[in-house]
């Protein structure tokens, strides 16, 4: 009898913790794409570098949308897979990268390090997506000193990306 009560109490605690921990994310959406960030993220002024950006003070998440109409003006084909888009984007950047195009699940990405005007080094991880209407590039940026923990966080954010049903 004591074991049943103990198991019941443990189950109640586990269910309570899981119920209250599920809402730690903040959904951010731009056009037909969304992702879940931590609640610490707020809108960030990227001065036009991205279509929309968010920051938590340590990480910047920049979302760029390239409609298929825009792609024609940029000389991009509208038939690229996300992986091919990542390869073309990498070629267009014409910069040294830490590694070539890799995949996390079905999301292509690559990484590189860049420096700011003040000499600070930053770790960048652009990721690539295709929707029925556009390409999206979500770029994650954090100080180079946070690269290891940044990668783990970025992969969690990548896993949370979704398409909005009203655009499908």
Structure summarized in a few sentences:
With about 170 residues, this protein is α+β, with helices and mostly antiparallel strands.
Could you explain how this protein is built, in words?
With 168 residues, this protein is of the alpha+beta class. The protein is 31% helix and 38% strand. It is built from 4 helices and 10 strands, in the order H-E-E-E-E-E-H-H-E-E-E-E-H-E. Strands 3-4-5-9-8-7-6 form a 7-stranded antiparallel β-sheet. The longest helix is centred in the N-terminal third of the chain and has 20 residues, at 2-21.
Keywords, please?
10 strands, 7-stranded antiparallel beta sheet, single chain, 168 residues, 4 helices
In which order are the strands of the major sheet placed?
Answer: 3-4-5-9-8-7-6
* Share of residues in helices: 25-40%
β-sheet strand percentage: 35-45%
Multimeric organization? single chain
H-E order: HEEEEEHHEEEEHE
Average predicted confidence as pLDDT: 87
Radius of gyration: 19 Å
How many H/I helices?
A: 4
- Largest sheet descriptor: 7 strands, antiparallel
Terminal-residue CA separation: 53 Å
Global structural class: alpha+beta
Q: What shape does the CA trace take?
A: globular
How many strands? 10
pLDDT < 50 stretches: 6-23
Summarize the SSE layout with pairings.
Layout: H1 2-21, E1 25-30, E2 33-38, E3 42-43, E4 52-55, E5 60-67, H2 68-74, H3 82-93, E6 99-104, E7 107-115, E8 121-130, E9 134-143, H4 147-159, E10 162-163
Antiparallel strand pairs: 1-2, 2-10, 3-4, 4-5, 5-9, 6-7, 7-8, 8-9
């Amino acid at each position: 009898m004591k074991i049943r009560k103990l198991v019941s109490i443990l189950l109640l605690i586990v269910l309570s913790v899981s119920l209250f921990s599920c809402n730690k994310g903040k959904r951010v959406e731009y056009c037909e794409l969304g992702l879940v960030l931590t609640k610490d993220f707020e809108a960030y002024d990227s001065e036009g570098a991205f279509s929309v950006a968010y920051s938590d003070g340590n990480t910047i998440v920049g979302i760029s949308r390239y409609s298929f109409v825009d792609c024609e003006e940029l000389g991009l084909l509208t038939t690229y897979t996300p992986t091919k888009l990542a390869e073309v984007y990498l070629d267009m950047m014409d910069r040294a990268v830490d590694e070539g195009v890799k995949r996390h699940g079905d999301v292509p990405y690559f990484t590189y390090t860049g420096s700011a005007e003040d000499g600070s080094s930053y770790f960048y991880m652009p990721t690539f997506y295709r929707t029925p209407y556009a390409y999206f590039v979500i770029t994650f940026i954090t100080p180079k000193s946070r690269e290891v923990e940044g990668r783990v966080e970025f992969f969690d954010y990548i896993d949370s990306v979704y398409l909005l049903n009203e655009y499908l």
